[in-house]
Each structure stands twice: as structure tokens, then as C-alpha cells.
Amino acid sequence: MRDFGMGKNVMEELVRTSLSDFLQHLDKLPDKENVDLYWPLQVVVANVINEVLFGYRFAYDDCKPLIDYVNRLNELNESNAENMGIAVGMALPALSKLPWIGWHIVGKIKHEMQQINQYVVDNVHRALKDYNIEDEPTCFVHAYKQKMADNENLDDVNLMATCCDFFLAGNETTSTTLRWAMLILAKHVEIQEKLRSEIHSVVGKDRLPIMADQVKMPFARACMLEVQRFANVLGMNVPRVAVNDVTIRDVFIPAGTWVNGDIHYVMENDPHFVNSDEFRPERYLNDDGETLRKDLVERTLPFSLGKRACAGESLARAELFLGLTSIVQHYRILPREGEAIDLEPAFVTTIILPKTQNFRLEKV
Questions:
Q1: Which residues are part of a known binding site for heme?
Q2: pTM, to two decimals
Q3: Which of 148, 163, 188, 314 is deepest in the core (most CB within 10 A)?
Q4: Binding-site positions
């Protein structure tokens, strides 16, 4: 994966190319007084991982397969949030083996995910249709297929599963975070103006930001950290299992116990985040206004910690920093005339979603 966008300069260029397409799309909108950014933000993020995995990007006026994928995934998340059987199944996993009960606890969800993931399966087949393994790979699917010839542990099943995991993980959380960022900056216009001033002083208006600009943009970095803290979209990450009996603060945890860190609670209730219900990027800056507070940065854990932290962290960080700064560089994001921004979550499932609200955009 590193050869096709994860952790290399290739990744940054893919993100910037996708953002360039996104900004051109905004420029062409006829009515900037009433702009719905939901689907444009979905596409700008999906196009990066889509190009890494499958070698192509969507046009903004021709992305129905992506729209269908996202809509079906949202419907499943909403259904799961109301399904008490899932919680029962996690507490009593033996029930999942029973015919009727097991279908409603696990089987139905697996079936629906298989239907949703058909999007990925179709794209894998499309990428491989005319590919010769003797040719130079142009995407992850090609590279994986080449490696299969030399590694018996790699097969088509694992290829499909890996692509499904990367597409899901590399899409929804990042686009949702950017949606939150747009709402927050529209709510706090003075912070948006300060951010824009820093962007223009460091980058100007004639080129898009690059990751190397970060060192000269402490307020932009602080804004991104505060967005991820204030509007953390994932309450918990993948659970761990205690491999040995252990006692922590007088609480005995036997071997085999599922353990999960409550990321959302930490970033909302850690006493180091004074007035944590307020959006204040400057909390991350030292008194000099130029350097970040290490103690707060280390407590901001949107990607979790350890070996099972988010595998796409470097890609997500690039998409978030470059996405936020590129949009603010070119557009002023404002509430619609006579309307106020609502920062209460719309829905809480595995992802904490913002309410869908339209914006007024002003070209800078």
C-alpha cells in the first residue's frame, strides 16, 4: 500500500489533485447562496482512496455508484443503532449460533454488508479486467495481484477483504470530519478569518497548500486538532483482548476480556482540555503562539493508539489538513442568510454525524 499512496509523496499529490477538482466544482456552482457540501465532500475524499485502490476518480456529475454505496451504508448504520440484538449478541456471543436469533444478531448484518461491498468487488474486477501481471501496476489492486504470484498466503478473497476495509475506513470518517469542520468554521467566523489570514500569509492564493507548509502554520494545525477533538467522529476504535490477567486501579481484568478505550470521553472530559465544550484552537498553542502544546497533542487521539490504531492515519491527516486549508484559502464558508449553524449531532451510531445544513460560499 505504501507504493500507492500511503505514507509517500504520491499520497499528497493524489489529495491535492482531488482537491483541485473539488474547488473547480465549487467554482462552477451557479448558486453559492445555498450550497450543500455533503456530496462534494464525500467525492473529494472517496476519489483519493478510489484512485489508490482502483486507479480512477469520479466526476462530480457522474458518481451514482458512490452515492448508492454511501446511502446504503448510512441506512445500515441507522438500522444497527436501533437493533438491540447486536448488544445482546456481543454480551452473549453463543446466541449468534442459533438459527433465527443468529440471523438477526449477525447474519442479516453480514448479508447487508456483502451487498454494500459489491461496489468494491465490482471495482476490483474492473481494475483486473485487462491487467497483465507482467505490466507495471498502476493501483493497489494491480500490485496485490502481482504479489499473489509469489506469496501463497495472498488470494482473491483477501484482496477483496482488504479493499473493502481500506475503502470503508478511508472514506466515511474523513468526509464526516470535514463536514464538521465546515459547520464549526461557519459558526465561528472570526476563527475562520484568522485561519485564512495565516494560510494567505504562508501559502498565498496562487497554489494549493502542501504538507510541508504545516511547520509555518501553527494555527492551522491547532484548528485541525481542535476539530478532531471537539467533533470526534469515532467514540471507540477496534477492541483489544487482555492476553493476561491484569489489575488496573484495583479493577481486576481477567485474560480474554474485551477492552476498548473510550476516545470520545477522553477528549471531552480530560481536565487538561479546559472548557472542553468550547471550540478554541488556541488551547493547543503555547504562549509564543508558534509551537504546539505537547501535553494536549498527546491527549488528542482520534486515530487511537498502538499497533491497532488507524492504518490510514497518514492519509487521513493529509486529507484533513490539506482539505481544510485549501477550502478556506479559496472560500469563505458562512451560514445561509437568516439561518444559524446547529452543532448538535444528528445521529450517533458508530460515527457521530452532524446535521445536514447548507452554506453560503463567498469566493476569496
A1: 310
A2: 0.89
A3: 163
A4: 310
